């Protein structure tokens, strides 16, 4: 399964704007297609995708734009709500963004007349990540450079507030662990908070800085992955220090995301170098990356809900790579 060659994307979609962030919805929309959202300098665009790997009648990627949401400011992160449904009447699209003006915006649309958004104000510096509670989606957690993690209700009221020791870079909520929140900090620490008692209950140490991104494995609640410095690191949460780590990106690693279909599959991206940004797909049983993808510029990283397929944003494009299980 060793593959040395750099692979160009299997599929691409042309976009209205430079793509800073791209997110497949991790939730079942009620329809066969997958929801995807991307954020640019001024807009969020929501669309659906269908791939040949899941439907023999599709020749290439089938992409359909559903709606463009005017945002007016650069989009830094997007989180999908589990309340999003395409098969309801009328359909409901709900997602939240973090923007360069340090505010969260909660968008709700029926893809027809109803298009609302609420602004959540509170962070005093850049917001790096956000996530909806994965079961009911009635609360949102966000982390930022202001050394805080905040939990909000859908009206924008703060329900909980955690003071961090350095900038918060990632926040994760696992569907099987509804009362625990994972928060990763730039100083290399990953903490788990009990939302009932609002206390830290567990911490993991990377032993290196800066930690830029971390993720909680959907398929195995014991597994946490991150990138710090040039390395990827993987923990079993029963042990404080990483069980495995490897240097992968010469220019420093930027993002880490677990596949949603295989607990051994994950992807990392590097900071854009002189020419291009690298996407690496890794399998924890293999010493070398199993796929190297290159995009002219790359930002964002997201995995499909049911396929071993990931996407990265770029200059007016989204790039998709498919890998073997």
TrEMBL record:
Query: A Pfam family name for this chain?
Result: WD40
Native organism:
Crocodylus porosus
Q: Which PROSITE patterns match?
A: WD_REPEATS_1 (PS00678), WD_REPEATS_2 (PS50082), WD_REPEATS_REGION (PS50294)
- Name the encoding gene, please: NUP37
Query: Which compartments does it reside in?
Result: Chromosome, Centromere, Kinetochore; Nucleus, Nuclear pore complex
Provide the protein name. Answer: Nucleoporin Nup37
Query: Has keyword Protein transport?
Result: yes
Recorded hits in PANTHER family, A to Z, give: NUCLEOPORIN NUP37, NUCLEOPORIN NUP37 P37 -RELATED
The terms describing its cellular component in GO are: kinetochore; nuclear pore outer ring
What does the UniProt record say this protein does? Component of the Nup107-160 subcomplex of the nuclear pore complex (NPC). The Nup107-160 subcomplex is required for the assembly of a functional NPC. The Nup107-160 subcomplex is also required for normal kinetochore microtubule attachment, mitotic progression and chromosome segregation.
Per the UniProt entry, what is one GO biological process? chromosome segregation
Specify the superkingdom: Eukaryota
């Amino acid at each position: 399964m060793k593959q040395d060659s750099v692979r160009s994307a299997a599929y691409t979609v042309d976009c209205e704007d430079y793509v800073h962030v791209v997110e497949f919805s991790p939730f079942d929309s009620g329809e066969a297609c997958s929801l995807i959202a991307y954020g640019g300098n001024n807009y969020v665009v929501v669309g659906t995708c269908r791939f040949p790997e899941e439907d023999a009648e599709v020749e290439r990627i089938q992409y359909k734009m559903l709606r463009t949401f005017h945002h007016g400011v650069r989009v830094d992160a997007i989180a999908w709500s589990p309340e999003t449904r395409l098969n309801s009447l009328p359909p409901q699209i709900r997602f939240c963004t973090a923007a360069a003006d340090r505010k969260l915006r909660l968008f709700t649309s029926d893809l027809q007349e109803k298009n609302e958004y609420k602004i959540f104000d509170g962070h005093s510096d850049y917001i790096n990540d956000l996530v909806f509670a994965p079961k009911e989606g009635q609360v949102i957690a966000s982390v930022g450079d202001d050394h805080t993690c905040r939990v909000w209700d859908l009206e924008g009221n703060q329900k909980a507030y955690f003071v961090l020791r350095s900038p918060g870079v990632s926040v994760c909520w696992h569907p099987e662990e509804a009362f625990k929140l994972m928060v990763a900090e730039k100083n290399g620490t990953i903490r788990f908070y009990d939302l009932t008692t609002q206390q830290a209950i567990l911490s993991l140490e990377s032993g290196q800085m800066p930690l830029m991104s971390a993720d909680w494995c959907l398929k195995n609640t014991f597994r946490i992955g991150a990138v710090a410095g040039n390395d990827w690191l993987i923990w079993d949460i029963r042990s404080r220090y990483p069980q495995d780590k490897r240097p992968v990106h010469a220019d420093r690693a930027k993002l880490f995301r677990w596949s949603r279909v295989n607990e051994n599959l994950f992807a990392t991206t590097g900071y854009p170098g002189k020419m291009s940004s690298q996407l690496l797909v890794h399998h924890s049983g293999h010493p070398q990356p199993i796929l190297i993808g290159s995009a002219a510029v790359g930002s964002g990283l997201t995995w499909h809900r049911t396929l071993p397929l990931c996407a990265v944003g770029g200059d007016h494009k989204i790039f998709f790579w498919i890998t073997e299980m």
